[in-house]
Write a structure and sequence with these properties.
By secondary structure, the chain is mostly helical. Helix content is 75%, strand content 0%. Helix 4 packs across helix 5 and helix 5 packs across helix 17 (387-398). It starts with a helix and ends with a helix.
Length: 437
């Protein structure tokens, strides 16, 4: 009960953030309390750090890359191209924006897709004179697709990185399983969003209100470096990961290259130079402290025996076959993430899967991926399911669009379950096809 009380207290501080208290300090305060009360021991600190360090620094590097490209105008350029591809047809523009969100989520993580794309789409819709209802449809689509399609690559979500590192899943193996599953996630997401918001989307819009995509580019050198750098980065993940090179090292190297390009001293004919100082100031350094602190608190739940009880449930599910194990684990992980946040949720699920006894390897692997899916999609049930959602709502409020928790849950509870079930079913169908590693 003490471990659970410390976890609940820490989570409340993280979500509430009294007097602007950073999430890292809230989590570290909970970790200190867990250490002082003996819920976790000092020997647990290096164990937890070994679990989180690669995922944490990969995430920070990805966000730095995203912020640099955003400052250079890369995402606005992409959004303007998509708006032009819509050809003045609003019902064509809606799925194009959803697909753009999915692509950004795949390569720049769910946080990048939600926090960077949403304000850009809002600005474009304002220029196109979309109604408030139509604008809301596109805004929710951006926030929703950012999480539901953050499955395909290890780097697409912090949850993916933690789980892949914990179970030693290679970058190539992970992609072989989850890329096809993510395509189902994209199709299901587009389907439910269109069913819910299709009537709000205007039939047409005026193309003459759009500026040329090239006008969005603010730093031509950084912009020109984006595509080759991303191509090399993706290739490096597949080549270097089997050699034991940490994902954080590969991503960090790419971030360093962009920082060097953006921080050049001359302007020449390349346009305005990106503010490296601003980017480094806005990078999520708090997530480093948060990861260690929050996972120490979660490890206290493991020490208190909570994950043993969950392991028993997983053993029971495994006894009923692949489909029961996949659906049950995924739905359970989703519900757990929606009430305790997906960051601690994924570790709780991973610890329980590891502790479960007598589970066949194929079913255990299905549970690992189902846990990831549940923790990626589960946050869409409630605003507290992920920090990205809380930050997304905060960004919207600053832009003059307020979505209350009640409004959010009304939408999330309707459109999340069918997507979650479709994706878990796709996993159960695809895993026997792709085979065991």
């Amino acid at each position: 009960m003490l471990a659970l009380a410390i976890f609940a207290f820490t989570l409340i501080l993280v979500i509430w953030q009294p007097r602007g208290l950073g999430i890292g300090w809230s989590a570290m305060g909970g970790a200190a309390l867990a250490l002082l009360t003996g819920v976790v021991g000092w020997a647990d600190v290096p164990v937890v750090w070994d679990i989180v360090w690669d995922a944490t620094f990969t995430f920070v590097a990805l966000i730095i890359i995203s912020l640099l490209l955003d400052e250079a105008g890369f995402f606005q350029w992409a959004a303007l191209h998509v708006a032009r591809w819509g050809g003045g047809n609003g019902r064509r523009l809606f799925p194009l924006v959803v697909v753009l969100g999915a692509v950004i989520a795949a390569f720049f993580a769910n946080d990048g897709a939600a926090l960077l794309l949403t304000p850009i789409v809002m600005a474009i819709l304002l220029r196109l004179n979309f109604s408030a209802a139509a604008t809301l449809a596109f805004i929710v689509a951006c926030g929703f697709v950012a999480d539901t399609t953050s499955l395909p690559l290890v780097i697409s979500n912090l949850v993916n990185i933690v789980s892949a590192n914990y179970f030693g899943i290679g970058f190539g193996r992970y992609a072989a399983v989850m890329v096809p599953v993510n395509l189902v996630a994209l199709a299901a997401t587009l389907g439910v969003l269109w069913a819910y918001y299709g009537r709000q989307v205007p039939a047409s819009y005026r193309m003459d209100q759009l500026e040329a995509p090239s006008a969005a580019i603010r730093d031509h050198l950084v912009f020109r470096a984006a595509f080759p750098l991303l191509a090399v980065l993706l290739l490096a993940y597949f080549v270097l990961a089997p050699l034991g090179v940490p994902v954080a090292a590969v991503t960090g190297a790419a971030a360093l290259v962009l920082l060097v390009l953006a921080g050049r001293w001359h302007r020449g004919g390349n346009g305005a130079v990106v503010s490296v100082r601003k980017v480094m100031r806005e990078a999520p350094w708090q997530i480093v402290v948060f990861s260690l602190g929050m996972y120490l608190v979660v490890y206290g739940l493991r020490n208190a025996g909570l994950t043993n009880h969950l392991a028993g449930v997983l053993e029971w599910l495994a006894g009923h076959g692949l489909w029961a194990a996949t659906i049950g684990t995924g739905v359970g992980a989703a519900l757990l993430s929606s009430v305790m946040n997906n960051m601690p949720g994924v570790l709780v699920g991973a610890l329980a899967i590891e502790q479960a006894q007598g589970i066949p390897p194929a079913i255990r692997e299905a549970m690992v991926y189902a846990n990831v899916i549940g923790c990626d999609l589960g946050p869409k049930f409630t605003p507290i399911g992920s920090l990205a959602t809380l930050l997304w709502l905060h960004v919207l409020a600053r832009k003059g669009t307020t979505i209350t928790w009640g409004q959010y849950m009304k939408v999330g509870l309707v459109i999340t379950p069918p997507v979650l079930l479709a994706v878990l079913a796709a996993l159960a169908l695809w895993l026997p096809v792709v085979g065991t590693p």
